[in-house]
């Protein structure tokens, strides 16, 4: 399986070769808006992939970050399902990996708002069904947060309510060391992918360092597929992926720009 590596230079003003190497690795493409021509744009993108496997992140659920740094999303559930349908139309019948709504389910669980949890669970289930109905070769991984957030037992209670997913994604945009992510994924007992984009430094104190642009973080292991050859003792692990694009800000903290904007100074610390 060969991932698509986008050759579009998003940061032409940056000439640092070490930072530029970030973009020589396959990375996810985040779909955070709903323009009228979304399906057409994705169809054009898929032609560029030329049979290689793209990685998409759907990040547009209503009230997606519950008002935090990445607040936003479409206005209501109807718009969201139209958005998902446009994504499915754009991908067409080609193979693709889709990460479904980072943090949406964990936020709903930790909010202790039962109505929010029920609504989100139902909406995520509908989204997965739409994607898989359009194209059975799409791999849909529902995001479940990271090992230090939601207990395994709680995730396992809810997953049966969201059919048509291939598995789950772990550690998206976070920094939890790989060993913890592997153990968490194994305990979940379902197929999974791990975001290894920024968890290369095993010394991470989530309480002290926080999740928003923490210092002393490093790139993790490069993207890799385990579909053809499984990792011993971790047979449910499908991929290491760079889902969060290294160098993009988590939000306006520690001097960073808005969430999602490339921050050259932070990228330098990741590759140093």
What topology does this entry show?
Layout: H1 17-20, E1 29-31, H2 38-49, E2 55-58, H3 77-91, E3 96-100, H4 104-111, H5 114-134, E4 138-143, H6 152-158, E5 167-170, H7 178-188, E6 192-195, H8 206-209, E7 224-225, E8 237-241, H9 264-271
Parallel strand pairs: 1-2, 2-3, 3-4, 4-5, 5-6, 6-8
Antiparallel strand pairs: 7-8
Question: How much beta, percentage-wise?
Answer: 5-15%
Radius of gyration from the CA trace? 18 Å
- Helix-strand string: HEHEHEHHEHEHEHEEH
Please outline the major beta sheet.
8 strands, mixed
Helical residue percent band:
25-40%
Count of β-strands? 8
Derived structural class: alpha/beta
Mean residue pLDDT: 94
Overall shape: it is globular
Discrete helix count: 9
Q: N- to C-terminal separation?
A: 30 Å
* Strand line-up of the largest beta sheet: 1-2-3-4-5-6-8-7
Short description:
The chain has 9 helices and 8 strands. It has helices spanning 17-20, 38-49, 77-91, 104-111, 114-134, 152-158, 178-188, 206-209, 264-271, and strands at 29-31, 55-58, 96-100, 138-143, 167-170, 192-195, 224-225, 237-241. Strands 1-2-3-4-5-6-8-7 form an 8-stranded mixed sheet.
Descriptors:
272 residues, alpha/beta, eight-stranded mixed beta sheet, 9 helices, 8 strands, globular
């Amino acid at each position: 399986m060969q991932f698509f590596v986008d050759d579009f230079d998003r940061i032409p003003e940056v000439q640092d070769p070490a930072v530029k190497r970030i973009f020589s690795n396959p990375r996810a493409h985040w779909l955070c808006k709903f323009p009228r021509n979304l399906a057409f744009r994705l169809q054009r993108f898929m032609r560029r992939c030329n049979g290689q496997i793209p990685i998409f992140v759907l990040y547009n659920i209503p009230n997606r970050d519950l008002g935090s740094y990445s607040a936003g999303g479409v206005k209501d559930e109807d718009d969201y399902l139209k958005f998902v349908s446009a994504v499915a139309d754009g991908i067409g019948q080609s193979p693709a990996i889709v990460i479904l709504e980072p943090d949406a389910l964990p936020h709903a669980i930790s909010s202790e708002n039962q109505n929010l949890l029920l609504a989100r669970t139902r909406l995520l289930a509908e989204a997965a069904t739409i994607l898989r109905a359009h194209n059975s070769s799409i791999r849909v991984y529902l995001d479940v947060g990271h090992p230090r957030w939601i207990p395994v037992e709680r995730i396992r209670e809810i997953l049966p309510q969201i059919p048509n997913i291939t598995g789950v994604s772990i550690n998206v945009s976070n920094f939890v060391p790989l060993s913890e992510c592997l153990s968490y994924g194994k305990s979940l007992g379902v197929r999974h992918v791990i975001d290894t984009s920024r968890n290369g430094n095993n010394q991470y104190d989530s309480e002290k360092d926080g999740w928003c642009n923490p210092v002393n973080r490093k790139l993790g292991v490069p993207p890799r597929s385990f579909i053809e050859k499984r990792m011993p003792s971790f047979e449910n692990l499908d991929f290491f992926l760079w889902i969060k694009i290294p160098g993009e800000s988590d939000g306006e903290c520690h001097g960073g720009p808005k969430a999602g904007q490339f921050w050259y100074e932070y990228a330098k610390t990741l590759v140093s």
